[in-house]
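Dear U.,

For the methods section draft, I wanted the exact inputs and outputs in one place so we can describe them consistently. I've listed the two proteins in the order they'll appear in the manuscript figures. Please don't edit the token lines directly; just add comments below if something needs changing.

First protein:
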Amino acid sequence: MTPPPSDTPGDGQLATPQGARSRLHGAGGPPAVPGTVPTPATTRDQIISRAKTWVAAQVPYSMTSYWSDGYRQDCSGYVSMAWGLPTNEWTGSLDQFGVKITKDDLQSGDILLYHNPDNPEAGSHVVIFGGWTDSDHTHYTVYEQTPPHARSQTTPYPYWNNTDKYVPYRYKGLTETTAGTKQPAADTTQPAADTTQPMAGAAGAEPASHGVPGYPGRGHFLPGAENAYLAQLRGRLQEKGFGSFYALDPGPRWSEADRRAVEAFQRTQGWRGGAADGYPGPETWRRLFVQGPAVR
């Protein structure tokens, strides 16, 4: 895509060529067929949290490279990662994992999808909606993968160009709404172990969520977090054999090294997709600290 003329640096959109549908880490996969790919359950908070990890890491844009989490480093790979899909989808298949909604229905974690069948690889784009930034709903916070790297910024609705082409979609596997009510999740092969966000324990007492002693809640393990539980987690991961992710000092705050170490542990438990997102939920904590099975 070519951005419209602008005097403001960074507010346009460069060309965003994308790769075809593929397996995680790049092994080629067949074209997507509706109903054959599982739709892992997830929440809005988890979608945005995953989207922020690439922004924080400034993952470079590429239609042929794959990030450490296995997702292709283009716009559709980014949404596949944020939604926790078990495959790298593209703009021609992402609609199969969502339901079409209206502008008035948009909430954080939904997407705006533009698929151009006449030029699908170089003439399409998809972004994640992060919430309105004005009362008139003319601008919103975007999360997107675009050259030179993943970014988040205020963007005019629906996008800088091709304004009549973008269609809002909501992920089918969403398990909660902003009103706090549950909606049915699609069938999934992923464990739902770490899809909750429990509250931290009472002040002055050891936290315990979902019957897991010592677990303080996922909010302690998000980008920028700095606390004693992070140091405790790092120590335990190194004891469990994941010290290679800390070959370089990651510093005092939650980092990509922490997320990758946690994800590696989760994968040893047989978890995939959104269940192995690299963020410690109560089941990850239980297996690490309470009665964790041996690392495979």
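Second protein (the one for the lower panel):
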Amino acid sequence: MYVVENATEATAIPHPPRRLPVLGDVLGVSLHTPVQDSMRLGRQLGPIFERRALGNRFVFVSGADMVAELSDETRFAKNVAPGIAELRGIGGDGLFTAYNEEPNWARAHNLLRPAFTQSAMRSYHDIMVRVVGELTEQWDRCAGRTPVDVSSDMTKLTLETIGRAGFSYSFDSFHRARPHPFVEAMVRALTHAQRRTFRNVPGVSKLLYRKSDRQNLADTTYLTDVVDEVIRRRRDNAEDGPEDLLEIMLRAAREDDPNRLDEVNIRNQVVTFLVAGHETTSGALSFALYYLARNPEILAAARAEVDAVWDGGPPPFEKVAKLRYVRRVLDETLRLWPTAPAYAREARGDTVLAGRYPMKAGDWVLVLIPSLHRDPAWGPDPERFDPDRFAPEHVRGRAPHVYKPFGTGERACIGRQFAIHEAVLVLGTILRRYDFAADPDYQLRIQERLTLMPVGFTLTLRPRPRG
């Protein structure tokens, strides 16, 4: 029998009203917006609640105190939750989708971690500058004439950046009228994984979703075919290979490094970085531009900093980190809409969460990050966009573990420094080069596909005078 120790009394976890037999908590929710629905339910039910859907149980946690407990690596570890497990058809045992016990996770983490330190960003900076230059060339042609689709263009930019910086491969993103087929296949695969998570009916799903499963198989096959081509090109030109992520992995295999990765895992890592390395950053940039356009005083302050810190010409590496207010704009954006909006934690052994909720070894919960980032610890108006929340004096006084846009623990996002440097560089470049305005009638709409992205958000641009 499982015994609750150090707990006053086991407490039932709240759930939505009007639970239906078999179907579960499906009234008033949508397959298209499970994160936003869960945020709404959390406001009604509190910092921990459960949802059941078609026999599947999901426990959501957003209270700062409980998340602090879940961040204790001695008691909890990453759980590959159903939505992430659905992506193993794309990423296999890559860094993001690997189970904790799979040996390739530790090997890849040890091998690639030095390539994502803050000091390593210097080697990627010039590539990032060139890619943002291609964005501004396209936007210059639109300025004063045609509104730009922000999410689409940020996706082009971030895919091109990780392709070139990580694997010396160009998707020719800014020379295409439509998104690269890799992007279209990826979006369908991510959307399929999310919807499959909440509509999985044991024994029935294969029949009900045969058509969408066939499309998903075609998409995942295409994604891996693209990556195989990237690797093939490198092998064919091995003597001239640049020092990038792909070269680090291939060289380790050639030299029989203790952390060497097998052929299949190298492919899994490349797919992981191409997908995760651009999808979340493009969403963060799109949300940041939305909030800047909606807040003229914050926009003016960010632009004034760029004008004061950056001289003419492309900014050198050192000047990106000096945009401290722009960085706070990015941090506050990721507070309101962390583009990877949840992560799962599982109990390493029998334990009790918050002194009231028993968990057996292997039990898992989802940390709902947008709700955590609206915890009362953030003050009386957490929906307000305020970059000064990240001023040093406020950061020092903040409760621990209340800000988690990159996950937690040893399985947190390995590419955090890459994403931050790229995003601040891009925002600074846009602020310096353009005056911009959003459609005043636009209301923020968010597409969910395991990640979050604004939909239908455009900007009208005007070139700024160059002095």
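Candidate sentences for the figure legend, describing the second protein: The longest helix spans residues 263-294. Confidence is low (pLDDT under 50) at residues 1-8.

Thanks,
Y.
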